[in-house]
Amino acid sequence: GPAHLFRLAGKCFSFVESTYKYEFCPFHNVTQHEQTFRWNAYSGILGIWHEWEIDNNTFVGMWMREGDSCETKSRQTKVHLVCGKSNKLAYVSEPSTCVYSLTFETPLVCHPHSLLVYPTLTEALQRKWDEAEQLLYDELITDQGYKKILKEIFEEAGLLKATEENEVEKQNKKITLEFETVEKCSKEYKQLSEEIKKLRVLLGQHGIAYKGNLGE
């Protein structure tokens, strides 16, 4: 993400509302502490640093996920980054059960270009983005296709976490690419044929009959 935001790492910011104290430690976690004298006062993790929230090719917030369990799911928190005169946790809410929303004010995001994604990427990924822009401009891909490429770029950059389905899809794609030309396919077939010959010899040495032919 934006290098200038890394100066927030290692620091924590708190906000007290009613009997609860919330603490946000950028790139680390979000915690909640119930400030009462009850014997079972709640104190726990509302989320651990996970990934960025990106909207319109701009960093808009941080997702803290995999917090303490809450019924059937884990607690999670979205931290909105907004311009402010000083670094402070300004507002906390719980829009839906066990999903929290925090507003963090900081002068580090006041510059209009301070949260752009493009400058944080490597040259290779910037080129990939430029190519996608050109394809969209030439109407060779749809808006949906363009967004898919951007998502892949963000995942490759480590800004977003790839979902399990994506990982499976990538592996399948990798396997498909291995056989994308006749030459590659023939080479692979030849290697497998050699392997089968060796295995048949091995089976013969152990007196095990092999049923089938090399073509199979």
UniProtKB/TrEMBL annotation:
One of its GO terms (molecular function) is transferase activity. GO terms for cellular component: extracellular region; Golgi apparatus. The keyword Phosphoprotein does not apply. The keyword Glycoprotein applies. InterPro entries: DMAP1-bd, Gtb1-like, Man6P_isomerase_rcpt-bd_dom_sf, MRH_dom, OS9-like_dom. Pfam families: PRKCSH (PF07915). Residues 10-112 form the MRH domain. PROSITE patterns: DMAP1_BIND, MRH. Residues 117-216 form the DMAP1-binding domain. Keywords: Disulfide bond, Glycoprotein, Golgi apparatus, Secreted, Signal, Transferase. It is found in: Golgi apparatus; Secreted. Homodimer; disulfide-linked. Hexamer of two alpha (GNPTAB), two beta (GNPTAB) and two gamma (GNPTG) subunits; disulfide-linked. The alpha and/or the beta subunits of the enzyme constitute the catalytic subunits. Non-catalytic subunit of the N-acetylglucosamine-1-phosphotransferase complex, an enzyme that catalyzes the formation of mannose 6-phosphate (M6P) markers on high mannose type oligosaccharides in the Golgi apparatus. Binds and presents the high mannose glycans of the acceptor to the catalytic alpha and beta subunits (GNPTAB). Enhances the rate of N-acetylglucosamine-1-phosphate transfer to the oligosaccharides of acid hydrolase acceptors. This is N-acetylglucosamine-1-phosphotransferase subunit gamma. It comes from Spizella passerina.
